[in-house]
Amino acid sequence: xxxxxxxxxxxxxxxxxxxxxxxxxxxxxxxxxxxxxxxxxxxxxxxxxxxxxxxxxxxxxxxxxxxxxxxxxxxxxxxxxxxxxxxxxxxxxxxxxxxxxxxxxxxxxxxxxxxxxxxxxxxxxxxxxxxxxxxxxxxxxxxxxxxxxxxxxxxxxxxxxxxxxxxxxxxxxxxxxxxxxxxxxxxxxxxxxxxxxxxxxxxxxxxxxxxxxxxxxxxxxxxxxxxxxxxxxxxxxxxxxxxxxxxxxxxxxxxxxxxxxxxxxxxxxxxxxxxxxxxxxxxxxxxxxxxxxxxxxxxxxxxxxxxxxxxxxxxxxxxxxxxxxxxxxxxxxxxxxxxxxxxxxxxxxxxxxxxxxxxxxxxxxxxxxxxxxxxxxxxxxxxxxxxxxxxxxxxxxxxxxx
Length: 402
Description:
The chain is an alpha+beta fold. It contains ten helices and 18 strands.
């Protein structure tokens, strides 16, 4: 036999060997994962795939179920698509002919006490006194999120164009009255008034959209930190509008958090407020201001349809708090494929990068598992059966994928 022929036979044999053995691990994993079937009810779904996209296990993967907070993966993808990697939230500060200080909000979800203090320090170098503090929240129309109730839980905090501290204040009661439970955040008289009205002793108070509480709280917080910088007010805190044609821009604050950092906080803390702030701003970027929930829904739906070729997902808002949201495990898997380059933004424990979701009677989990070879398994677990959790399925899945 000629040398050339032997060479071809050798490489053909090697190729066949590799093909046969490449398929073996997947089949072995599939066999182990098949034991998950008895844990998946009629109202549940599970899908597992390897790093090459081979489906190792699938049960009810076409069934549209409630995703709860795993929907934030879609919201994050849409935000990066519409806002772009260089996007940063801004907040603008103006003065007018009546020596009023005006603040115009653009939906920054991370205007926390430390940031307000930093901005006030900068303003203190440019301003000595002002009359009224005028707050412009016109960048958003009033936003009502389906699924949000009037509880005092942070996940029910409302959304708006100019908000601070996620529209919440953490407090406790001591002899002599109420005090802040967070050293960086003062307990303002504005907050104490609401605490007393609700008859609370400790915990969190959530500001509402009623009587523009969320915007006014942000204004009172700015006034407090401005006073600490020696900038005195001779007027009140009130709502109004910026007139860019006649008002003078004093300072334009650009957030230190790029969009990926915002999304990381959104996913790791499962923050509903951040999710729907970015959801509404994505709608503005796709359309025009003012921001509305409907524009956000249209923008995210168009992104799914045009960029991901997905049509069978029902979106009501961006955080997953609404039970009107519906998605199949197969479509969630498609989102995981798209999100994989950003998987490091998720919560990370052991071999797993993941996002969980929880509503009454609903437990979900989606993400990635390191395969030990530089690749990632992708998994979706959607439990819509009341009383069940994802823990047993995840435990067996992780053991099977060793």
